[in-house]
Design brief:
Blueprint lengths: L11 H14 L5 H32 L9 H48 L2 H6 L2 H43 L2 H48 L1 H6 L3 H54 L4 H42 L21 E8 L8 E8 L4 E6 L5 H8 L7 E6 L2 E2 L5 H6 L1 E4 L10 H6 L7 H10 L3 H6 L17 H15 L3 E5 L7 H15 L3 E6 L10 E6 L2 E6 L1 H7 L2 H10 L4
Parallel strand pairs: 3-8, 3-9, 6-7, 7-8
Antiparallel strand pairs: 1-2, 1-4, 4-5, 9-10
Helix pairs in contact: 1-9, 2-3, 2-5, 2-9, 3-5, 5-6, 5-9, 6-8, 6-9, 8-9, 13-15
């Protein structure tokens, strides 16, 4: 996924802090739950730290005082069990309370990302790599929940527990215990940070090759038929395997460097614990500490260093999580190319007049697609646009829907510049039957009703009858509940096109666009559909993009385009009499050469 930044590129650490700030914004909805979970965490750690304290008292009470074993140890043992139980209780309560916070944050981000993707321009979606975006979004969304887990269930508990233990050691024992503990932790953290930063390159490479291989696999599956047509299964597998090979190399290096890091961390902890135990044992020998003190210090060290050993893993996971999250937040920070101006009003369609006024447009600056295009579609009339491939016909449709903004000129609907009205209201008033019909992997009924979600079953079926697909649907084993497959691949081109026609009929828009609306139909069905299209467009402003001239002979006006310019315009009979570009195209098609 290629993301272009308009401002100064942020360095890694600044991006991480910025992303963390954005993550914590998702906590606002359930801030009360988050605070309650934090209180449970503190209480859990308080109970956890109390366990070694009680253990010390139990051991000291048993040290040469067997007479008291039937009194004091019983109460202490009960306290020991109670604190362990409380620790577990508050831990589970924290998990339960925080679950709503975490999963709601993931839901929020998922919704936000999908909404943002729908706001991005057609230019972005034409250049995107679906497989890579899918994998990046999956990892990015999951990373929010993971990060919250790490913070609430790992980082904060370690900080709280370390603070409590440090306080107890400083209050009851020689300063050297606190100094040794702090020194060990400091060396451990510095070592972990330095080595983890060094090895992050391999993780980034793993992510990159993972996304690329996923994209390649998706692409080969989307183009399944093309792969089969040309016997290129081996090519697709070899390309996929090549990327997986690079991923494997990065993964192996990542694992090797992680093992090095783990060994270094274990060495630091082992040295620190050994020094602490020497100090405690020496205190017992000198009489300044009891056996209970020795056991308590040992228990504290285990409670500290076991989770601290996990801190290295947690830090690495947080770095990986932040790397995954960065992909999503980069996407969210990408500005939509087409936006409603401040104070934009809804489009008001009274007559439905459409005017293209001195329209100029280019996808890339070096190549102008439309050059000073001027024409009007009067209310309730049909204007057809014809021309060779690449003449700019379909671009007119994209501009009418405002998928792109013009380089120059205006498009007016009932005198309103489409750039000054809301995109939502503009597209509500325009219906289209596209040349390349793409359906949702849902039922036929769902795909037709998509044109008007409030339509009744009767209205959906009437639209299907008008599109001459009703009998076909009724003949299917599953009828209206037939699943059409991904992109509608279980239906033929003609069947998909008739579903698209029914969907547009159901929408009943003020302005209609037919972009090669019958290109996939056989002659008999095309003639029947043409009568339907003429019927529904008889009182509707209609723009028809056509390749087969026989489908537009009844249009009120025909516009002939060539290289982005209008070279001829007029009714069919008029253009035939001129014997110009249109006449030449007509002769070719009548001779069967096209």
């Amino acid at each position: 996924m290629h993301i272009i930044h308009t401002g100064e590129e942020l360095n890694g650490n600044r991006r991480d802090w910025r992303n963390l700030k954005q993550v914590f914004n998702y906590l606002k909805v359930y801030r009360g739950r988050a605070l309650f979970a934090l209180c449970c965490l503190i209480l859990s750690k308080w109970a956890n730290v109390a366990v070694p304290l009680v253990l010390k008292e139990i051991i000291d009470s048993l040290d040469g005082k067997v007479v008291q074993t039937l009194v004091l140890p019983v109460s202490l043992l009960l306290a020991y069990g109670a604190f362990r139980l409380l620790s577990a209780l508050f831990n589970e309560l924290r998990d339960t309370v925080f679950a709503r916070v975490r999963f709601h944050a993931m839901r929020q981000l998922s919704n936000q990302v999908l909404a943002h993707l729908h706001q991005l321009s057609l230019r972005f979606h034409l250049s995107r790599k679906t497989g890579a975006i899918s994998r990046d979004l999956e990892r990015g969304t999951r990373s929010v929940g993971s990060l919250m887990n790490f913070m609430v269930f790992s980082i904060v508990p370690i900080i709280v527990e370390f603070s409590l233990v440090a306080f107890i050691l400083a209050k009851n024992y020689d300063w050297v215990f606190v100094a040794t503990t702090f020194s060990t932790v400091a060396v451990y953290i510095v070592f972990t940070l330095l080595v983890t930063e060094w090895r992050m390159e391999h993780r980034h490479a793993m992510n990159r090759y993972d996304s690329e291989s996923n994209t390649q696999a998706f692409d080969s599956l989307i183009n399944y038929e093309t792969v089969k047509y040309f016997n290129n299964e081996k090519l697709e597998l070899s390309r996929y395997d090549e990327l997986l090979g690079k991923w494997e190399e990065s993964a192996v290096k990542s694992q090797a460097t992680m093992s090095l890091l783990n060994f270094g961390q274990a060495s630091i902890i082992a040295i620190g614990v050994t020094i602490i135990m020497f100090l405690a044992a020496n205190g017992v020998v000198k009489g300044s500490m009891t056996i209970g003190d020795l056991v308590m210090v040992n228990a504290f060290m285990l409670q500290l260093f076991i989770p601290l050993n996990m801190l290295g893993i947690i830090y690495r996971q947080i770095k990986y999580t932040l790397a995954d999250m960065d992909l999503v937040f980069k996407l969210l920070n990408k500005k939509p190319e087409i936006v409603d101006p401040p104070g934009a009003q809804a489009l008001k369609v009274a007559k439905g007049e459409v005017i293209f006024e001195h329209v100029c447009f280019s996808y890339q600056k070096e190549r102008l697609i439309l050059k000073d295009v001027n024409f009007t579609i009067p209310p309730g009339k049909t204007v057809a646009v014809v021309g060779l491939s690449g003449s700019g016909k379909s671009t007119l449709v994209r501009l009418l829907f405002r998928f792109y903004d013009l380089d120059a000129g205006r498009i007016l609907i009932d005198g309103q510049d489409i750039r000054t009205v809301t995109q939502d209201s503009l597209r509500k008033n325009i219906g289209i039957v596209p040349q390349d019909t793409v359906l949702f992997n849902e039922t036929i009924f769902y795909n037709i009703q998509y044109g008007n979600l409030n339509a009744s079953e009767k209205e959906v079926k009437n639209a299907a009858k008008m599109a001459h697909i009703y009998e076909f649907i009724e003949s299917l084993p599953d009828g209206w509940n037939t699943m059409v497959g991904e992109r509608g691949l279980k239906l033929s081109g003609g069947e998909k096109q008739r579903v698209a026609i029914a969907r547009t009929i159901l929408k009943n828009p003020a302005i209609l666009v037919f972009d090669e609306a019958t290109s996939s139909l056989d002659t008999a069905t095309e003639q029947a559909i043409q009568k339907t299209l003429q019927q529904i467009s008889s009182h509707t402003t209609t723009l028809t993009i056509a390749h087969r001239l026989s489908t537009v002979v009844d249009a009120d006006k025909i516009i002939v385009m060539e290289s982005g310019k209008i070279v001829e315009r007029g009714a069919h009979a008029e253009l035939i009499k001129r014997k110009g570009k249109y006449w030449a195209m007509w002769q070719l098609q009548q001779d069967g050469s096209d």
